[in-house]
Amino acid sequence: GMYACHSAHVLHRDLKPSNLLVNKDCTLRIGDFGLARGVDAAATEANTLTEYVVTRWYRAPELLVGNEAYGPAIDLWSVGCILAEMLGRQPLFPGRDVLSQLRLIVQVVGVPEPQALRTVVRNEKAVDFILQIARQAPPPPPLSERFPNAPAGACDLLSRLLEFDPSKRISAADALLHPFLKPLHDLNTEPTAEKFDFSFESASDAELKGLLEAECCRFHPAGAAGQADPPDLTDPASTVTSPQGATGVAAARAASALTSPDEGMADSAVVMPCFSAMGVGQLGRIGGDGAEPRGV
Q: Which residue in 58, 135, 240, 263 is deepest, having the highest Cβ count within 10 Å?
């Protein structure tokens, strides 16, 4: 999923377990693209974005220290946190706030040398705080000791995903080639995607209204051919004429109903492109994951 997103130059920016949807046949969908943004994946420095994104427990170090220039590596850090949670059956970094979150990260994965750290962290006060934590904490044990029952290769992949320095963090494409994922890599195709068009973000209010209306009409075609004002479906006297000529509340409801629960899940997971990028179609979230008000 991240390979496809990043090939389309899209950062998800809010990966966590409650945004991963799995149906009865174990098909995985990535949901909640409300914070997704388009970036130039080859030029991290050009991607000046808000740093107040991603639920805290799954937030990469470069976001915690306030860096405004970042790239696809932030999503791979979140993937690492999710993998660790699967291996240990509990969150790896359940910080109460940003400072405790940084402290937990340093205690588990360590930090680069001071000179290398300054290339990752632009805030000198944050550098001093991280180095102080590193001096006080014992050297972090290998992840294999923290997860003794992990499958072969899992801890190695995890260490590459949880690399403090984003420039050294494994990419989605390279992660798919890792020996731990080889059985899945051989069974599945990894499609790329065309670059996603985020030009609507600079549209006027009137243009956005038109885009929203067009998306609604795609999923509710009966309304597109009906009255100018949407009917009140709770009013028994309300009628809507569908393209097939059927009238009444039952026809309007039937036109808006999904054909099966599985299709409903797929629509929620993929989300309508215009809605999802603006956060209108965000999926419900599960509490207890460090959730907090998020940036845009």
A: 58
